[in-house]
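Standup notes
- HV: blocked on the assembly model, inputs below
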Amino acid sequence: MRSVANALSITAVIVYALGAPRAHAQDVRRLEVGQAVTESELSAWDIDIAADGAGLPAGRGSVQEGKTIYESKCLSCHGRNGEGKPMDRLAGGHGTLKSPDPVKTIGSYWPYATTIFDYVRRAMPLDRPQSLSADEVYALTAYLLHLNGIVDADAVMNAQTLPRVRMPNATAFRGDPRPDVSNAACERNCRD
Amino acid sequence: MKTRRDPPILTPQQPIGRRALLRGALATAGIALPKLAAAADSSKGVEVKPWMTTPGRGVGSAPYGMPSRFESDVVRQATEHTPTTLSSWSFTPLDRLTGIITPNGLVYERHHSGIPDIDPDQHRLAIHGLVERPLVMTMDDILRMPAVSQIRFLECAGNSYTEVLRMSRAKTVQVSHGLLSCCEWTGVPLSTILAESGVKPEAKWVLAEGADAAAMTRSIPIEKALDDTLVVYAQNGEMLRPEQGYPLRLLVPGYEGNLSIKWLRRLKVGTQPWHTRDETSKYTDLMPDGTVRQFTFVMEAKSVITRPSGGHVLKAHGFHEISGLAWSGRGRITRVDVSTDGGRTWQRARLDEPILPKALTRFRFPWEWKGAPALLQSRAIDETGYVQPTRDQLIAVRGTNSEDHFNAIHTWRVDANGEVSNALSS
């Protein structure tokens, strides 16, 4: 039984070494599965916004317009001034990230303003996602940035102005340095 | 994935009769619930029982079979600390399972806007962006492509977030480690699907998007997309459960569960990550110096003893098998050590086969409990040589503001009366 298992595992190693599992990647001929589609046919689904603003639609919205929309559609979950409860806190928290009780909000934590537009349009309000017009999402984005002291009360957001907004915490983001700890497989007299 | 001010997790309200049910289920392991030690039956249980003299249910009485009614308490446990069930999570009952496969109905859940009810005939997968041929595929298209079946674990980035702070709120392994499951997944390699569209050479990242009301989106490096990522439609031999992405999901082996986008509807190929909300605001790791680690995908080597574990009671001195699970997002588990003295001395555990890469591995360790208090720990080592760290080591580097990707050695306390509890809670 063991020799059979060994033989199988050796075979598996050889097959793996020959690259069989990766054959799918480049070598296999096309299967001709699926139907051609154009980018314009996909436009209703193609709603992602890149960090540099690629994908932002036409439209505009002001802080003041955003305040009105926020108070009718967002306030009940996120609080009058974005203080949260029951759902996520959206504003404040500046200077808390090194403290024992960090407050992570759009203003204190998020690295890109474009992410606000992307997320609000795709997922908010929770009970009616994708119900907001582009103008409404621009306005809400402007208001949320204003609540966090990042843009002035007369700011207007559109496909040109939004990608230019610099977020206070943008420079804090790093890659993955792990493994970042090194434990030893001690077996005797290991700890105090 | 949660707020720091959550109240402590309480043990769930237990239905009447649960203790009696548990007694039978746990008796073979020599484990009982509190105060049951004296509840011995005066007979030896070998009289003729009613089911021995009466025919049972007929064939076909349960077209889709369910567990025995005596196992009705083996269920997922939803967290009580999220403001809505639409964006919340539930834990797998790890201490009530054996082997390495999680039954489909017990796979942990994490949804961000509820569970959609998708007609597979109406489901589509779109592939576009930096490709030669944008495509849309039906489920019939995907089901006729070359498939693979692989056993892989799935672990939420936030698994064991309860253990970061000194006073853990997790009384059971279900809550401390139950954002973890392992299934045999069947589907098509993502590389095969991308090859149909023809990825352009400048491609560096792939955006995956769900068809749920959260339209969950994550950016995946092209190397991982072309390596071992799967587009799966089945788990443990049957089509995906709705909670697991029916009819189609991504499965990104070894990476934090959030990347394995459920209800997958769209793949967009690009040159940069998108910095979506769930890879900036969430699923990032805040360090003590205020910097933030982003794209921390791999779930590093980890293990936990599932039996005995929090809430169990050892009802007799003598032999007790210690058993648990080990896994690594970087490959195979090569060794698991067990300590019964809080980490002063360690001994090798036996590993059950199969030992598969990026899958749960079951370990077992024979133990004689003489009645003294004990501190039970397990320590996993993977094929890269990485040794599962202690809690102190992790916190020395990452502090306590980082709650995700927490893979520290876990300690169960056994008291002289046999009660087992989370050592962090006491």
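- HV (later): unblocked. Helices of chain A lie at 2-17, 23-26, 63-73, 75-78, 114-123, 134-147. Residues 60-172 of chain A form a domain with the Cytochrome Bc1 Complex; Chain D, domain 2 fold (CATH 1.10.760.10).
- Next: hand off to the docking folks.
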